[in-house]
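A brief tutorial aside. Many learners find it easier to grasp structure tokens once they have seen a single protein encoded end to end. The record that follows does exactly this for Outer spore wall protein LDS1. Read the sequence first, then the structure, and try to relate runs of similar tokens to stretches of the chain.
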Amino acid sequence: MSFALSLLLTGAGGLAYKFDREQILKPHPGIKYDFNDYNLHGLKRCFKESLERCETGAKNFIPLFRKSLFYPLKGMVTLARNKKLYASEVIYIQSVYCVMYFIILTLYLNTITPMYVSFLALLGPLGVMIATLHGLLHANLLTMMFMRMSHFQAKLVILTCKREPDVPIYPIGKPVKYYIPWNCKYFWLVYFPLKFVKYLYGYIVLCVLLVISALPIIGPFLFHFLVSPFITKIYFSKNLRINGVSNINRQNFFYDNLGSYVAFGLTAGFLESIPIIAGFMLSVNSMSSAMWFNDNFN
């Protein structure tokens, strides 16, 4: 039940971003040429772009990794120095987190934890302690999955951006979402099959990651380690959207700054693995992502 609720809310948050009304819809520029020429032009273009992304990501990985690893800690310092400015938003986000965590934890302790207790019964009282501790950590992981995808932090991100000197007041424009029209051959013969494979692959990967997260105690930490760049992607996406960056350029930005995404996500994910503190870190990491964006985005 706790898994189902968490995945349902995470999916709802993802759909809210995907179909956000605060964006401009335009046909994808990649379908201007005739479909019959796709094998000649489209595949070559995609292959070339993939190689360029790999080269750029590998070249910049180490410098960007070092530069971005401690940005979540910078967010803590900024919050400590400006408590009055951010207090109301941080308390609001923490309150929402605590309510959702309590709901998920209650469901988890009454459905999943008894299974762990039975598996670890041979360890006696120690097994019960391990099962309970894992329940606290795992319920927090499930809570954070959809809390990151929510819009509760949007105001805090904008507030942080406005405080930064020499930075334009947000937002400066609506992001463009390029789409593939469903009434063209390209959609049904190329785009739709590729999307189907992509989502099927994503579903399988998610199932594997959830199995890994079920490992007692270490599972939630290992889960956040493996998805670290995608944790950052969620945080940075808010800033990119506010700044009017299109979905295509957001994807390019991810590969161009892969080292930063991994480093930021490692620190953020580790700190968000700790229950209760995770709610506080949700605010801190939202602020830190805005600070990183202002320092590095051109």
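Self-check: The first strand starts at residue 24 and ends at 27. If you spotted this yourself, you are ready for the next section.
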